[in-house]
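Subject: complex prediction, re-run

Hi both,

The earlier run crashed halfway through, so I resubmitted it with identical inputs.
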Amino acid sequence: MAEKFLFILLPYLSAAVFLIGVLYRFWVWGRTPVPLRIVSTPAPRTRGGVIWRLIGDALWFPSLFKGDRFLWAAGLAFHILLWLVLLRHLRYFLYPIPGWVEGIQTPGLYAGYLVSIPLALLLARRLVDEKALYISILGDYFSLFLLLAITISGTLLGVFFRTYLVEVKAYALGLIHFNPAVPQAHWLFELHFFLVMALLAYFPFSKLMHSGGLFWSPTLNQRANFETQFVNPWDFPVAYNPRNLWPPEKYQQELAESKEGKKE
Amino acid sequence: MKVPIPIPRIKIGASQRLRCHPCKEKDMAKIDLPRERAKDWKEVMLKKMAEVLDKYRSVRLFMDICVKCGACADKCQFFLGTGDPKNMPVARADLFRKVYKRYFTLGGKIWGRANEAEELTESVLQDWYTYFYQCSECRRCSVFCPYGIDTAEITIAAREVMAAAGIATKYVTEVVAKVYDTGNNLGIWPLAWKDNCSFLEEDLKDTEGLDLKFPVDEVGAEILLVPPSADNFVNTNTMIGYAKMFHAAGISWTTSTYCNEGGNFGLFLNYANLKKTNNRILEAARDLKVKKIYWGE
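This time it finished cleanly. Structure:
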C-alpha cells in the first residue's frame, strides 16, 4: 500500500504541484506590471545585451563574484555539479540513450560524488558567518538539508547499497509513459526517490523559485534605452494646483503684505 | 590606493534608537496624506500593501525569490556604519517580507512563525519606521545581488504603505510640503528668489563689471533652468556660472518661481508625491512656453 502510494501516486502528485505551482508563480509575476525603469547599472542598451546579461547571471553569477568570492565559488560549484547530476539522470528516462547523455555519464557520476561538498560548505558558511546566521531561516536550512540528504543518499545508492538498475529504469520509463509498476523493494532507493519527490513539491513554495525568478527580475531584464519614453501602465494624472503658481498679481499682493512693502 | 572597509561585528539593536522625527500635521495636510496615524492603521496598511504588491512586479518578485545568501549584507553603508543586523539589506527587506508572508502567502498563513511570517503589530511597525528610514535608496545592494534584488524598491514600497496610514518622517514631508508652497526644497519664497537674482546681478556688476541678467519667470525664453535651489542661496558661484555660460552661448534662459528645484523628495515618500513633484517641472515649462528644460541635480 505504502509502496503503491510512493511509486504510483506520489510522482504524479509532486509533478503536478511542481508544474502548477511554478506556472502559477510565473503567472503572478507576469501579470504584475513594471511601472518604472529600474535597471541596475551597468545596464545593456540593446535586447541582445539583456539576453547576454541574463545568460551570464544564470550561468556564472558575476554579481556574486564582485561581492563574495567564497560564496561565488561554492555556489557556482554546486550549481554546475547539480546540472551535471540532473542531466546524467536523463539516462533513466530515455530509451535509447542519446550519445550526449552517454558522454556525460562519467563526469555526471563524479559530479554526484562531489556535489555534497559545496552543499556542506554552503551550510557551514550559514553557521559560521554571523551575518549569514542572523538572516538564515528555517526554509534555508530545510532546502540545504533536503538537498544534502538527496545527494548523500544518491551517492550511497551508487557506491555502497546498489539497487538493481534495470528495474529502476523500467520503472522510470513506465512513469513517463503513464504506466508505472512498483519496482523491487530497496530501502535506500525508496528514500532517495521520496526525498526527490518532496523537493519537487516543496519547490514552488520556497526560495528555490529563484531559478525561474531571475529572468523576471526588472533590474536585470530591462534595457537602458532612455531615448524612448517608458510608459507606466497604471499611471494616474496628478492634480495641477494653480494655487501654487505665482502670477504677477500674487507677487504684488505678497509684496504689499511683506515687511518691506509696507509704507512706514 | 584601495583601502578595505572594515566589516563590523553585528550588534543587535545598535541603531534602533536612531529614529527620524515624526511628521507634522500641517505638512501632511499639504501633501494629501492623513494628518495623523490612522486609527485603523493596520487595515489601511495591509490594503495598501496588497495594492503595492499588485502594482510593482519588483516588490512581488523580490519578496519571493530572495535566497538569503547574504551577499548584500556587508554592502550597505548603514550596516557598515552601525553594525545593526537589521540594516543588512536582506534583513531590511525581511521586515517587509515577514508581513508579506503572513498575509499574502499560503505557507505563511499555514506555518506562521515557523515560516518566519509575522503579524503586523505595533513593534513590527516601529521596526519599519526605524529601519526603512535608515535606507538611503542608493541601490548598492542590487549590484551585488545575484538576482538583482533592489532593496530600494522594498524601502519605497514600505514607505508608501506607511504614508498611506499617515506615518512618515518630518524631514521628508516638510520638504515636499515646501516644494508645493514655494517651488523648492529650501523654502525660498518667490520674492526672495527674485531678490536673490537681482542681488547676484548687482554683485556681478560690482565685482567683475559684467552686466548679466538672471531672468525669473520670463515667458518665451528658450531654456528653463531647473537648478538645485541651493545654487541661488548658498552655492551662488554655480548660479553665476550658469548665467555666464548662457550669456556666452547667447541663449535666452529663465528660472521659474513655480519650480526652481530639481531634487525630488517625493521619492522618499510615495508615488503620488514623486509624480507631482516631477510634474511641476513640465507645468512650469509649459507655463513659460520654453523650448527646452535644463535640469541639474
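Chain A is about 65% helix and 0% strand.

- K.
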